[in-house]
Amino acid sequence: MADNLNQLATWAAPLLAKLSSQERRAMMRELAIGLRKRQSDRIKAQQNVDGSAYVPRKPQRLIRSKQGRIKQTLFNKLTKASHLKIAITEGSAAVGFNGRTARIANVHQLGLRDKVSRYRNEYDYPKRELLGFSDDDSAWARDFLIDRLTG
């Protein structure tokens, strides 16, 4: 996959060099927003980068009763733009998390050990790949660049 990205970068570099600084930044912003949407959709679908399903969450004990059901999907809030940030420059676009959200996401991304809460024991979290660049994402980015640079 890294080979495909290097080939894509090598192919796109001369074409991007022909654009003005503002045009490159605008295109990188569009690319980053599209990648954020794709990552968000994949997280909502509870899928790893390779397409496999996340390890299910442990059953939660309800402290108080609520009318209706409680939806127990993982990472509901992490898919929002306020948590899933984009960073752009003239030549790059990145999607990721910041601050406390980044620490939580890193624990799940790598399957690390962390405290559940301040007063509880540590827990070995299963690996759930929140962010990543799949072959499908690579194909989408290539098609995006072709459309923008040739259109």
Shape: elongated
Read across the widest sheet, the strand sequence of neighbours is: 1-2
Question: Taking Cα atoms only, what radius of gyration do you get, to the nearest Å?
Answer: 19 Å
Helical content class: 40-55%
Question: Helical region count?
Answer: 4
- Major sheet details: 2 strands, antiparallel
Average of per-residue pLDDT values: 86
Helix-strand topology string? HHEEHEEH
Strand content: 5-15%
Note poorly predicted spans: none
Structural notes for this entry:
- By secondary structure, the protein is mainly alpha-helical.
- It is 45% helix and 9% strand.
- It is built from four helices and four strands; from the N terminus they run H-H-E-E-H-E-E-H.
- It has helices spanning 2-17, 21-44, 99-110, 135-150, and strands at 85-88, 93-96, 113-115, 122-124.
- 11% of the residues are buried.
- The model has no long low-confidence stretch (mean pLDDT 86).
List keywords for this structure.
151 residues; mainly alpha; two-stranded antiparallel sheet; 45% helix; 9% strand; elongated
Question: What's the helix and strand layout?
Answer:
Layout (H helix, E strand, L loop, with lengths): L1 H16 L3 H24 L40 E4 L4 E4 L2 H12 L2 E3 L6 E3 L10 H16 L1
Antiparallel strand pairs: 1-2, 3-4
Helix pairs in contact: 1-4, 2-4
Give me a quick take on this structure.
The longest helix is centred in the N-terminal third of the chain and has 24 residues, at 21-44. It contains 4 helices and 4 strands; from the N terminus they run ααββαββα. It has helices at 2-17, 21-44, 99-110, 135-150; strands at residues 85-88, 93-96, 113-115, 122-124.
